[in-house]
């Protein structure tokens, strides 16, 4: 009896002290044990390495050029200026034009919205059909699709150029949307198929007995249930399409170049003096969209790439 | 398109008709783009297409020219160095980070967020940042020199001999977070009882990892390996942004060779031959894996 109560007392004491001094597990171990120093030390050093480029980008973009020429890239700005940001956004020059990144940004937005919507719509319906309305031969196509996900894009790019040219949409927004839909299809279809397969079959059967058809079940039962997976798919596609460079270069014309291409042209343009602060501001601006998506979505992002990676 | 449904019963074709209609885009993509496009490119790699694709077969001439081109040889060497090193390092770093993260640490979410954020960025952004960090006049080399090591030399982006390592640093920065996440998921999938049993037997932690946990995680390792390897073959944007293939042609990679010959040099045959080589490389990586992973299961 006494034993138990003293144990309880010890436990409650522990939990209290844990809250005050920070939880260190259940044993009253020393906080600065050798193990913890090595463990957290390594993690913190690694974290610094990963954070370093982001930090360098931010401080460089806030300095003026004279300060950059004087100091090193890690020193914080003495005099904070937002001029590089303004210039990167509005007036930085590529070899072709001088309207900065804003042009690329809006092009990317125009590419992103329809591409995300169309690719997810097509893939979710495909996944649903594959999961619930199987017919002979469907899995063969699906296998080709998944194997095809490993084929380097370079192998398929020229035939697609020809097909799009024949359809009269090469170099247009429609063409690029089609391309993003095609190459988003394997991973997204897999994502949706796996999700719909994991739902209880009774649900689908009950709906069929009640007389619902293919589209009715999709829109009234599957779609509302699959909202989380739609969010995952959106995260995947928004970051993927925003970060795309190859398709942007191949399938658009210079005046509709997406932001990544515009950025590369600004930074790597050979004309004029290199303005590192403007370059870094431009780089940050381009990275901002996927970074915001990443930080806001948190665990869902991880779930998305894990779903794509582990099962793909 | 639907002719693959068995023609035994007449109504077979119309069974699940809606589903078949809904899957038309997927079937088109699979057949026309993935299968058709690949076959098309391979077939045309045996022709002497220049500005426009023409069906005039010249046998293996394009491949002979390809393997005689110094630029292609350099591309392949770079890909090999980059590929092998980035496989080794990303698996080792990814696993070590995951093992550290698996020690019931505090701020796990914070650390994971930090390790993974580069993966959300595009290769263009990654390449440009590292171009700046590795800038010899202002970046790492300058800083180490100003600390007193005046003869310190580390200017990978301007030195043809080591430029590929500069790209490797950037590639690892971007990709190890993903490997860490996959490894962590694998570690979390291991039964807690294994750890308890190892502890009861008095096996030190590092030995548990090497002799028990890593062999148990074989599938995770193989999947990760295939994923990284098949993405390494495609590496393109990173090089374009960081070095544009320079200095000279020291950091060229196959994917860039393909793009340049297809869309700039207007020498399609070379582009097709080079992209077919890329396809073969991926096939060598993926087919054994797919065979092990899926072929075995179906029979078992």
UniProtKB/TrEMBL annotation, chain A:
<keyword id="KW-0812">Transmembrane</keyword>
<dbReference type="Pfam" id="PF00528">
    <property type="entry name" value="BPD_transp_1"/>
</dbReference>
<feature type="domain" description="ABC transmembrane type-1">
    <location>
        <begin position="105"/>
        <end position="297"/>
    </location>
</feature>
<feature type="transmembrane region" description="Helical">
    <location>
        <begin position="173"/>
        <end position="196"/>
    </location>
</feature>
<feature type="transmembrane region" description="Helical">
    <location>
        <begin position="111"/>
        <end position="131"/>
    </location>
</feature>
<feature type="transmembrane region" description="Helical">
    <location>
        <begin position="280"/>
        <end position="302"/>
    </location>
</feature>
<dbReference type="GO" id="GO:0055085">
    <property type="term" value="P:transmembrane transport"/>
</dbReference>
<dbReference type="GO" id="GO:0005886">
    <property type="term" value="C:plasma membrane"/>
</dbReference>
<feature type="transmembrane region" description="Helical">
    <location>
        <begin position="37"/>
        <end position="58"/>
    </location>
</feature>
<dbReference type="InterPro" id="IPR000515">
    <property type="entry name" value="MetI-like"/>
</dbReference>
<protein>
    <submittedName>
        <fullName>Carbohydrate ABC transporter permease</fullName>
    </submittedName>
</protein>
<keyword id="KW-0813">Transport</keyword>
<comment type="similarity">
    <text>Belongs to the binding-protein-dependent transport system permease family.</text>
</comment>
<keyword id="KW-0472">Membrane</keyword>
<keyword id="KW-1133">Transmembrane helix</keyword>
<feature type="transmembrane region" description="Helical">
    <location>
        <begin position="140"/>
        <end position="161"/>
    </location>
</feature>
<dbReference type="InterPro" id="IPR035906">
    <property type="entry name" value="MetI-like_sf"/>
</dbReference>
<feature type="transmembrane region" description="Helical">
    <location>
        <begin position="217"/>
        <end position="242"/>
    </location>
</feature>
TrEMBL record, chain B:
<feature type="transmembrane region" description="Helical">
    <location>
        <begin position="113"/>
        <end position="133"/>
    </location>
</feature>
<keyword id="KW-0472">Membrane</keyword>
<dbReference type="InterPro" id="IPR035906">
    <property type="entry name" value="MetI-like_sf"/>
</dbReference>
<feature type="transmembrane region" description="Helical">
    <location>
        <begin position="21"/>
        <end position="46"/>
    </location>
</feature>
<keyword id="KW-0812">Transmembrane</keyword>
<dbReference type="Pfam" id="PF00528">
    <property type="entry name" value="BPD_transp_1"/>
</dbReference>
<feature type="transmembrane region" description="Helical">
    <location>
        <begin position="162"/>
        <end position="187"/>
    </location>
</feature>
<dbReference type="InterPro" id="IPR051393">
    <property type="entry name" value="ABC_transporter_permease"/>
</dbReference>
<keyword id="KW-1003">Cell membrane</keyword>
<keyword id="KW-0813">Transport</keyword>
<feature type="transmembrane region" description="Helical">
    <location>
        <begin position="79"/>
        <end position="101"/>
    </location>
</feature>
<dbReference type="GO" id="GO:0005886">
    <property type="term" value="C:plasma membrane"/>
</dbReference>
<dbReference type="GO" id="GO:0055085">
    <property type="term" value="P:transmembrane transport"/>
</dbReference>
<keyword id="KW-1133">Transmembrane helix</keyword>
<feature type="transmembrane region" description="Helical">
    <location>
        <begin position="208"/>
        <end position="233"/>
    </location>
</feature>
<protein>
    <submittedName>
        <fullName>Sugar ABC transporter permease</fullName>
    </submittedName>
</protein>
<comment type="similarity">
    <text>Belongs to the binding-protein-dependent transport system permease family.</text>
</comment>
<dbReference type="InterPro" id="IPR000515">
    <property type="entry name" value="MetI-like"/>
</dbReference>
<feature type="transmembrane region" description="Helical">
    <location>
        <begin position="272"/>
        <end position="292"/>
    </location>
</feature>
<feature type="domain" description="ABC transmembrane type-1">
    <location>
        <begin position="76"/>
        <end position="291"/>
    </location>
</feature>
């Amino acid at each position: 009896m006494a034993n138990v109560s003293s144990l309880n007392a010890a436990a409650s004491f522990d939990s209290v002290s844990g809250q005050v001094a920070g939880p260190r597990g259940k044993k009253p171990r020393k906080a600065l044990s050798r193990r913890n120093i090595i463990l957290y030390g390594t993690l913190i050093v690694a974290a610094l390495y990963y954070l370093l480029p982001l930090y360098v980008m931010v401080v460089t973009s806030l300095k003026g050029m004279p300060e950059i020429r004087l100091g090193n890239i890690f020193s914080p700005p003495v005099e904070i200026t937002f001029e590089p940001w303004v210039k990167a956004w509005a007036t930085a020059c590529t070899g072709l034009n001088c309207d900065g990144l804003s042009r690329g940004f809006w092009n990317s937005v125009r590419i992103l919205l329809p591409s995300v919507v169309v690719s997810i719509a097509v893939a979710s319906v495909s996944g649903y059909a594959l999961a619930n309305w199987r017919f002979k031969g469907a899995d063969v196509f699906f296998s080709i699709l998944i194997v095809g996900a490993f084929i380097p894009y370079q192998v398929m790019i020229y035939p697609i150029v020809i097909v799009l040219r024949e359809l009269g949409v090469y170099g247009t927004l429609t063409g690029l949307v089609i391309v993003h839909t095609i190459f988003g299809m394997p991973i997204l279809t897999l994502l949706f198929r796996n999700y719909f397969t994991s739902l209880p079959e009774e649900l689908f059967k009950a709906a069929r007995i009640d007389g619902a058809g293919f589209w009715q079940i999709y829109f009234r039962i599957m779609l509302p249930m699959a909202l989380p997976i739609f969010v995952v798919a959106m995260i995947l596609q928004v970051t993927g399409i925003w970060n795309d460079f190859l398709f942007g270069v191949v399938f658009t014309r210079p005046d509709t170049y997406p932001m990544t291409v515009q950025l590369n042209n600004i930074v790597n343009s050979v004309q004029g003096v290199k303005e590192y602060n403007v370059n870094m501001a431009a780089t940050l601006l381009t990275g901002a969209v996927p970074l915001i998506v990443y930080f806001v979505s948190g665990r869902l992002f991880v779930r998305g790439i894990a779903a794509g990676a582990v099962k793909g | 398109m639907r002719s693959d449904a068995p023609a035994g019963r007449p109504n077979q074709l119309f069974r699940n008709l809606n589903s078949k209609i809904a899957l038309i885009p997927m079937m088109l993509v699979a057949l026309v783009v993935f299968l058709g496009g690949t076959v098309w490119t391979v077939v045309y790699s045996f022709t002497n297409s220049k500005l426009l694709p023409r069906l005039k077969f010249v046998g293996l001439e394009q491949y002979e020219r390809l393997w005689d081109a110094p630029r292609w040889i350099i591309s392949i060497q770079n890909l090999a160095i980059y590929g092998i090193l980035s496989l080794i390092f990303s698996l080792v770093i990814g696993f070590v980070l995951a093992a550290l993260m698996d020690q019931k640490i505090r701020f796990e979410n914070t650390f994971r967020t930090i390790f993974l954020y580069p993966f959300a960025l595009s290769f263009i952004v990654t390449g440009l940042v590292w171009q700046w960090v590795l800038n010899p006049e202002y970046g790492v080399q300058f800083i180490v020199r100003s600390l007193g090591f005046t003869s310190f030399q580390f200017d990978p982006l301007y030195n043809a001999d080591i430029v590929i390592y500069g790209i490797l640093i950037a590639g690892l920065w971007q990709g190890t977070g993903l490997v860490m996440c996959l490894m962590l998921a694998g570690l979390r999938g291991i039964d807690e009882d294994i750890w308890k049993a190892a502890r009861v037997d008095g096996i030190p932690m590092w030995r548990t990892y090497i002799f028990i946990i890593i062999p148990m995680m074989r599938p995770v390792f193989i999947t990760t390996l295939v994923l990284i390897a098949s993405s390494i073959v495609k590496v393109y944007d990173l090089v374009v942004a960081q070095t544009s293939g320079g200095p000279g042609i020291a950091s060229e990679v196959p994917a860039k060779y393909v793009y340049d010959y297809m869309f700039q040099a207007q020498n399609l045959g070379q582009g097709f031959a080079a992209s077919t080589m890329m396809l073969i490389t991926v096939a060598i990586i993926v087919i054994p894996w797919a065979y092990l992973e899926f072929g075995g299961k179906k029979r078992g």
